[in-house]
Amino acid sequence: MYIFLLVLMVGTGVAFQGWRTLLNNFAVDVAGLDGLGMGIANSIREVPGFLAMLAIYVILIIREHRLAALSVIITGVGVGLTGLFPSLTGIICTTLLMSFGFHYFETMNQSLTLQYFNHTEAPLVMGRLRSIGALTNITVGGFIYFLAKTLGYTEMFALFGAVAVCAGLWGMTRDPSREDLPLQHKKMVLKKKYWLFYALTLMSGARRQIFVAFAVFLLVEKFDYSIQQITILFVCNNVINYFANPLIGKAVNRFGERAVLSVEYSTLILVFLGYAYTDSPLLAGAFYVVDNVVFNFSMGIKTFYQKIADSKDIASGMAVGFTINHIAAVFIPVMGGIAWITNYRAVFLGAVVMSLVSLILTQLIPDQLRKIRATG
């Protein structure tokens, strides 16, 4: 299962990182989108994440590992078609296709990881997979840096999408499943005892959308970052993440979820204040790197759920979690786009408030773990 998830994650990572690196410059330089257009596109991109709960019903007819491989193929097709449609409508349609594949793969990836690896192994596996993902992103960044001089957007999008399609086709020929694991509930499971996981997931999704939709856009629009500069920034992020992710996994085991998540949200408060008020391109880029690194601390939310969840609730919990994560994601980018037109600082100050709420909720984790253990 580890090798299976690793190959699919690399395929998805190539396509998604290529898409993410190229999209803002493609949208501004070729499609002519403004902040509102990007906000609309990013909101629609999150609709498949909001519908991730439907994965529970899809696995009634297709096994989880098959759905994971199929999702990677769909991701690749969506990315590969992006460069052919340089307009708001075109970006929306191709992004929607890519996003269905990406979000359904991530749902299955998290579900299978928590099912196949125990409480101690899961953080380490997540850290290792994210580390390999960072190495993949570095490689993609290197290719883009040099390919951008000779290839156009259309060719680059097609190339990166094709890698994901090939990885997904490989996955369709494999069966890494085991029959000795608890049979997963194939229905929606919502339980009161999981309320803190739901709340942390909701807030994480809300503040993450500010980063995804507007952090790079700030660098491109306000500070005139070129595609090569964005690529260099992504490579820096991923070099750090390659070494940091395994350490984060170990930190979750050693210090616990509350400590790790508290560091994340305390740091993010400072980062978003920095986005709002800095006039330095270098500082803005540094904030982006820090933001990207501490995002990986969010694995603590998933390992917290693993510790409090019934073993048969893992698949449903990951699907429900993805849906909750994307409730705010559907409307926050549009609201942020409208706010951006008036004053871009308001977007990032809103993220400061979200991070503060998350920090407060995180302090409740030990009490929740004690209550779950006390009730068996």
Automatic annotation (TrEMBL):
SUPFAM superfamilies tied to this protein: MFS general substrate transporter (SSF103473)
Pfam families linked to this entry: MFS_1
Segments passing through the bilayer: 39-60, 91-108, 154-173, 194-220, 226-247, 317-341, 347-365
Coiled coil: none
Signal peptide residues on this chain, from the entry's feature table: none
Organism: Pseudodesulfovibrio nedwellii
Listed name of the protein: MFS transporter
Keyword Transmembrane helix: yes
Keywords linked to the UniProt accession: Membrane, Transmembrane, Transmembrane helix
